[in-house]
Amino acid sequence: MIKKTYIIGVGLIGGSFALEIRNIFPDSSIIGIDKSDYNINQAIELNIIDYKAEINQIENPDVIVIAVPVKSIIHLLPKILDTVEKETLVLDFGSTKKSICNAVKFHKNRENFLATHPIAGTEFSGPTAAQIGLFNNKNIIICDKNKTNKSALKLALEIFREMKMKVSYMDAISHDKHIAYVSHLSHLSSFMLGKTVMDKEKNEKNIFDMAGSGFESTVRLAKSSPEMWTDIFEDNKNNVLKSLEDYMDNLEQIRHLIENDNFEEIESQLKSINYIKTILKGINQI
Q1: How distant, in Å, are the alpha carbons of 92, 108, 240, 241 from that of 177?
Q2: Are residues 45 and 159 in the same domain?
Q3: Of 142, 170, 198, which marks where a domain is finished?
Q4: From the first residue on, what is the mean pLDDT of each consecutive set of 10 residues in the chain (286 residues)?
Q5: Which residue, of 170, 193, 209, is where some domain finishes?
Q6: What is the pTM of this model?
């Protein structure tokens, strides 16, 4: 039974998690902690949390969720672990894992901490973006589970099951390497596509009148939090650079094919790449 849950960061992810906890454990008190008074007050008004607190006011926690940008997690996590009880579960929802895990590698309460990454979200942020069902049928990656005590891991798995999440396991290093390709690169590409078109718009004011749903869906991620994504790109710098290098190699290759009128090869490559819809369909059905 969860009686007291602390949510550090009451935006989209933290707020959605709080709503799920309220739904699953209706008798649990939900306390929010956030550097923004505006966010905290909104979260109370929206009934996402019951009341607010500060880090130094954490008392008798059953679950503590840290849903803030990566740099802040690295800074806060050791302090959070200083406050835990024997059976407290501490979760982080950061988009990178290696630096976060290293920050508490030798902490006396390391076994209370479970490093997780829910593959869920939207391009919107703040408490108003929080929603029930955000995690439904979404994957959550658990890293280095053997470093978390069995009772904390069991509680986490029970919560994720109640939220109808799919669980997978990785080590932190592998997580950061692979997530650079399937998440970080796509966000970076979206931001840069938006920049490219906005730079052109300075001279051609009607360019956005020509933009259709393809453009809108491709740059959707560019509406994401700049603070959060700057943190991610910095923390996962080497993996992001490698994924960006591979991506630029492919862009250069397609540029070369167009330049040399090799459209037969372009069509062949596009057909091969088209198989990704089969892969993604299979993943969504798991």
Answers
A1: 18, 28, 8, 11
A2: yes
A3: 170
A4: 93 96 94 96 96 94 96 96 93 96 97 96 89 94 96 96 96 96 93 87 69 78 88 96 96 96 93 82 55
A5: 170
A6: 0.87
